[in-house]
What we know:
- This protein is mainly alpha-helical.
- The protein has helices at residues 10-23, 34-41, 45-57, 76-100, 102-119, 125-142, 146-165, 170-189, 192-221; strands spanning 31-32, 61-64, 68-71.
- The chain has two domains: 10-73, Winged helix-like DNA-binding domain superfamily/Winged helix DNA-binding domain (Arc Repressor Mutant, subunit A, Orthogonal Bundle), CATH 1.10.10; 76-219, Four Helix Bundle (Hemerythrin (Met), subunit A) (Up-down Bundle), CATH 1.20.120.
Amino acid sequence: MRRIGRRSTAASAADAIRDAIIEGTLAIGQPLSEASLCSSLGISRTPLREALMELEGQGLVDIAPYKGASVFFLSPPQIRQLGRFRKLLELAALEAAMQDCPDELARDLDEVVAEMGAIFSTDSTSAYGALDTRLHESLIAHGGNAYIRQAYQIVGLKLAVFRNLIPRNWDYITNAQRDHLALLEQVKAGRVDRARAILERHIDGGTENYAANVNEALQNKGPGRTGELDDAGS
């Protein structure tokens, strides 16, 4: 990971740490050493602490009195709670979008789903994950509700972490793509209730995949070093 230059701000440090958390260089639940982070990023403690406070507000970092900072951690029950909240937001956005801008929603979903289909000729599960993020963020954007968008920012960041942490096999991706195609079909047809049902089932399946596999994924990853950022993470 690149070092932060002397002219960089706390926001730049927050960007670098956020990327490291999402990419898995800093693992969920990992303690964050101020000394190690300052050394890795080439910054002093003051902007680092400001950066950590910003990330705490985004739900990616926990700061406890007398214990310091650590990357957020969610147990399987907490992941299911997150999934239920995500479902509320995405279903509300989907319904609003299908009422207010159905053609624009269908066009954007069609574009993303087509790009997803092209991924099957490659071996890039990570590329599929990025498109999956884009598809669900498109639902939120077309919902046209600033409060839903704001609430989804925290959800979306955590989902990005789990998408990178938990490997996806092609059987899982194939089933997910079937859901996306079915959702697109119902959006184009204007069938709100059927689209909602498909999206609800899809989110429930993804949530359960994360909840069922998070502990094994962390064990396979191995213990993280306290707040160190690898150059490879840049």
